[in-house]
Amino acid sequence: MVFPSRGCVTCKTRRIKCDSVHPVCGRCQKATRTCAWDQNEEAGLLFKDENDFARGKPRRPWKSKAQAPPEPDVGVDPVVSPVLSISKNDETLNFWLENYINRDAEIPEFAREYSYFLVDFLPKVQHDSSLYLAMSAFSHAVFGRVMQSDKSIEEAERTFARGVERVQSEIRQASQNNIDELLLATMLMADYEDVMRNQTFHSENEDSLTDLDVTGSRIWEDSYYDVTASLLRQRQHKKWALNTSLSRAVRRKLIRVCIIRGVSVPEWLRDGSQFGEEDHVLTLDSIMVRVAALRERSLCLFLPKSARFSSQPHPGDLATEARAVDAALESWSAALPEDWKYTTRSVLSMGFFDGMIYGYTTYGHAAIWCRYYAICMVVNGIRNRALSVMAQCSSQMLSVAPEQDTCLQKIESLATDLCRSIPAFFTATGDPVAAESTRTSTTACNSQITPKLATLLAWPLLLAVNTDFIPQSQVQWLKSKFKSIADALGDGSLEAVTEQGGLKF
């Protein structure tokens, strides 16, 4: 008999002091972790037997050291969800599930990615289905790139090829019964293509005016996102029962892809209320649809005057449209309730942009605010570019100058806000929220940010580092964080943008 520690198993595993509060200790509650207790402690016993055999339990069989499987050289969250039916021997899939998928209570519904819903399908997914093959291919791809494993990359390519054949077969037999799995499978396959993307995108005629690639078309075009959109459209057209939460998450990702690509959101996808969006999230959602349309119309501003056509939008009209969208964004932020607002605090540690950081209620709130800052910068960048084209006419140069100064000031202020928001996601900044609820090292590359949080920051930083007119000091700081995110995710598309640029907002 021994006198045991009264702490929960979760705190013991993390090697931190537990306050022993039942049924959920303060540490686990603050970190939104599952609070696991020893069976004897749950029953309220003060002492416990350390001899399992004396308590009637079978002896643990001896194992030869030669037969013991090697421990994976990756960090794994000790708290495993009870719904996972994946074999513990599937190292790559478990690595991906534990490090890249946000679980219950970690992220509010309005900020969840589609991958959150994969956990619900794990107990029933068939190993020969397109969804399982997509998960396996994607997890091998991520593991292979992050851990630099050629074997995993080769397995990813083989599995993805099988998945392509399987998903084509299942799409031909799409029904209300398998539409959710197909949505998840095709989204995973689209993300697989991003992760495995080659980092070289040189064109045969890079100097041609018609070859401008400000939308990153060589990276994001012709992907499985289009297949996902057609499946979502098919569900709507055939009036199949709507999995509202999953459809919302998929739709949000598709809208963000439209903004990157510089294409308008399809008409059938524009009304967020049809997918269950409401309140402040619906308002921002409708503005993002407007941003996608504005970006598409403004692409002509990147062309020299000799390459523009009379049928293209007039710069003055684009400036007016951007001004209206910017006003809508400001109204949205001003109308938010108190629990959406952020707090500020000063820090003396190194590694911060200017010694000031913002704190948010949850990582989900922080992610939405970062998206807000990013799209505001994009809108004001478009507005300033339109005004710059107008200023090429001597008669308008003086009249647009004050508004140009306003745009530049707003872009600088928004970039500062974004820089102050990013530390909440990074584990090496000393921020109490980040340090309490995330692990400091989840991959062999020793990234400063966990992959599941990097996923939330990838899109807004992709926009920010490729938006013109941001002061150089802010650009360099944001690019350093963006590179950490690309490294943590092992995303070939993000790495390509980091190395080559080309994408412009």
What's the topology here?
Layout: H1 9-14, H2 26-31, H3 39-42, H4 91-100, H5 118-121, H6 130-146, H7 150-172, H8 179-195, H9 217-220, H10 224-237, H11 244-261, H12 279-298, H13 315-334, E1 343-346, E2 356-359, H14 363-391, H15 394-421, H16 432-437, H17 451-465, H18 472-489, H19 492-500
Antiparallel strand pairs: 1-2
Helix pairs in contact: 4-6, 6-7, 6-8, 7-8, 8-10, 10-11, 11-12, 12-13, 12-14, 13-14, 14-15, 14-17, 15-18, 17-18, 18-19
Please characterize this protein's 3D structure.
This protein is an all-alpha fold and 505 residues long. It has one domain (109-201, 208-500). 53% of the residues lie in helices and 2% in strands. It is built from 19 helices and 2 strands. It has helices at residues 9-14, 26-31, 39-42, 91-100, 118-121, 130-146, 150-172, 179-195, 217-220, 224-237, 244-261, 279-298, 315-334, 363-391, 394-421, 432-437, 451-465, 472-489, 492-500; strands spanning 343-346, 356-359. Helix 11 runs parallel beside helix 12 (279-298), helix 17 (451-465) runs antiparallel to helix 18 (472-489) and helix 18 (472-489) runs antiparallel to helix 19.
Main features:
505 residues; mainly alpha; two-stranded antiparallel sheet; 19 helices; 2 strands; 53% helix; globular
* Topology as a string of helices (H) and strands (E): HHHHHHHHHHHHHEEHHHHHH
Q: What is the CA-CA span between the terminal residues? A: 67 Å
Using only C-alpha atoms, the radius of gyration works out to: 25 Å
Shape: globular
Assembly type of the chains comes to: single chain
- Domains (count): 1
Largest pleated sheet? 2 strands, antiparallel
Please count the beta strands (DSSP E, at least 2 residues each): 2
The structure class reads: mainly alpha
Number of distinct helices: 19
Average of pLDDT: 81
Contiguous uncertain segments of 5+ residues? 41-84, 199-212, 428-446
Q: Spatial order of the strands in the main sheet? A: 1-2
Helix fraction? 40-55%
Strand content is under 5%
